[in-house]
Specification:
- One of its GO terms (molecular function) is D-xylulokinase activity.
- By secondary structure, this protein is an alpha+beta fold.
- The protein folds into 2 domains: 3-249, ATPase, nucleotide binding domain (Nucleotidyltransferase, domain 5); 303-406 and 481-503, ATPase, nucleotide binding domain (Nucleotidyltransferase, domain 5).
- Helices cover 41% and strands 21% of the residues.
- It is built from 18 helices and 24 strands.
- A 7-stranded mixed beta sheet has the order 18-19-17-16-22-23-24, sandwiched between helices.
- A hairpin with a 3-residue loop joins strand 1 and strand 2.
- The protein is globular and about 65 Å long.
């Protein structure tokens, strides 16, 4: 029987998944890798650590799946988007990667927009405005601050492309991931000649770009020996974690949307046609589906807000969960369920690491607003869950405003594991939500890409239709929907009222 391997190079670790040729998940395994913060607002990782964790996760999943290496007929990829990887001629990284949530490049983002004649012109060229997360800002930071390193660059890659390089020896990119660099003309799905010329980038450092399901190379003997796989195994190009996660959720047709509540929260919708937000509050990218597109908004600390609460204020729940052998999030969510909807006027702004959608403000700060003497711990927890979901709803409303159909939202990540949070999302989004039989997101999507690239399916859409089914439907409760619509109108007033203060705080 043919099996396929999906690899997702995430922020906290690499996940590997073995899937049968018909889409059944056999086993998964994860290996962690570190994150470094040399200065406040900086976020870096060593590309070599991604390769180490990929090897560890792959060996572990093959062992757990109890499959023969030769049964793995193809390998697909997903990876954290935007991270800058620059190497010498031999493929050795020249410095640690500035990853997606690194916030140091605000000046470079402003310089980029000024150089192309303003934000509107940049969006016209590459589909998005310059934000600190996008890779060109990071490349320009290296040129501005580390000119000797910049002068040594021979190859430019993104995180999962570096891992694939270690596996195949080939320098290749894909259109979905490279859409997040500010250097790809998304209409043509090729590098933007205007951007390359305007910023004096040596086109020789840029890899060829192909579609996500296309085969980018084969596993070398040395890589195969390290990973416990067979040499010559085809390796698909893969894509960015959000477009590939959409494949893993079956969001590959108009009207389908996903809301993924991880550390960051992403609301993603598919579009057959190319469309952009003139203010770039939601981003436009090439989809992992050949020739099509997607738009999504990113809330930097959605599930991350809940994680922060657990880590900082949830010591008692963590201890109690250990004794009861349950997840501490279950105990915290049970507390939240005891508080009234809206927490009697208490709001949480989820801006722990600045914000991307819809404000594009690295200086934004998280806070509770509306504390009073009746506020209890239950309200504090519930407000965090509501605030994170209000932040996600910002993206939902922006996508609707672009004329995109959102008839069904597929939930995944931590927010999909709790019945309470699932219902909360349906009530706040005001839209029918569902969960599906596939829960592995990007790693699963990566395996489906590999299977399609190797001919198991005729197309990505056929693969998703065959493998992914709706498991649970959650409809908004009419009264709660009306109540949260009113609360959301107050929520959206809070950031504008505090934006200037956030900037002043950041300058202290």
């Amino acid at each position: 029987m043919a099996n396929y391997l999906g690899i997702d190079v995430g922020t906290s670790g690499t996940k590997a998944l073995v899937m049968t040729g018909r889409g059944r998940v056999v086993a998964t395994a994860t290996a962690e890798h570190p994150i470094f913060a040399p200065q406040p607002g900086w976020s870096e990782q060593r590309p070599e650590d991604w390769w180490t964790s990929t090897v560890a996760a792959t060996r572990a999943v093959v062992r757990k799946a109890k499959v023969k290496p030769a049964s793995i007929k193809g390998i697909g990829f997903s990876g954290q988007m935007h991270g800058l990887v620059i190497t010498d001629a031999a493929g050795r990284p020249l410095r640690p990667s500035l990853i997606w949530n690194d916030q140091r490049t605000g000046p470079e983002a402003a310089q980029i927009e000024k150089k192309v004649g303003g934000r509107k012109n940049l969006i016209k060229l590459v589909g998005n405005a310059a934000q600190t997360s996008f890779t060109l800002t990071k490349l320009m930071w290296v040129r501005n601050h580390e000119p000797r390193t910049y002068a040594r660059i021979k190859h430019f890659l993104l995180p999962k492309d570096y891992v694939r390089l270690c596996m195949t020896g080939d320098y290749v990119g894909d259109v979905s991931d490279m859409s997040g660099t500010l250097m790809l003309n998304q209409r043509t799905r090729k590098w933007s000649k205007e951007i390359i010329s305007k910023f004096g980038i040596d086109s020789a450092i840029l890899p060829p770009v192909i579609e996500s399901h296309e085969i980018a190379g084969v596993l070398t003997k040395s890589a195969a020996a390290k990973m416990g796989l067979a040499a010559g195994t085809p390796v698909a190009a893969g894509g960015g974690d959000q477009p590939v996660g959409a494949v893993g959720n079956g969001v590959v047709a108009d009207g389908l949307t996903s809301a993924t509540m991880g550390t960051s929260g992403v609301v993603f919708t598919h579009s057959k046609t190319y469309t952009t937000d003139p203010k770039s509050r939601v981003g436009t990218f090439c989809a992992a589906v050949d020739g099509e597109y997607c738009l999504f908004g990113c809330v930097l600390a959605a599930g991350g807000s809940f994680q922060w609460f657990r880590n900082t204020l949830g010591e008692a729940e963590v201890a109690a969960a250990g004794k009861k052998k349950v997840d501490p999030y279950e105990l915290l969510t049970a507390q939240a369920a005891k508080a009234p909807a809206g927490c009697e006027g208490l709001f949480w702004l989820p801006y722990l690491t600045g914000e991307r959608t819809p404000h594009g403000d690295p200086n934004a700060k998280a806070c509770w607003i509306g504390l009073h003497t009746r506020t209890t711990r239950n309200e504090l927890v519930r407000a965090v869950l509501e605030g994170a979901t209000f932040g996600m709803n910002d993206a939902v409303q922006l996508l609707k405003a672009r004329g995109l159909s959102i008839r069904q939202i597929r939930l995944s990540g931590g927010g999909a594991r709790s019945a309470f949070w699932r219902q909360l999302q349906a009530d706040i989004y005001g839209t029918t939500c569902v969960t599906i039989n596939a829960e592995e997101g990007p790693a699963y999507g990566a395996a489906l890409l590999a299977a399609t690239g190797c001919g198991e399916f005729a197309s990505i859409k056929q693969a998703c239709k065959a493998a992914i089914k709706v498991k649970r439907t959650i409809k908004p409760a009419p009264a709660a929907k009306r109540h949260y619509a009113k609360l959301y109108q107050q929520y959206v007033r809070l950031y504008p009222a505090l934006a200037d203060e956030f900037a002043r705080i950041a300058a202290l």
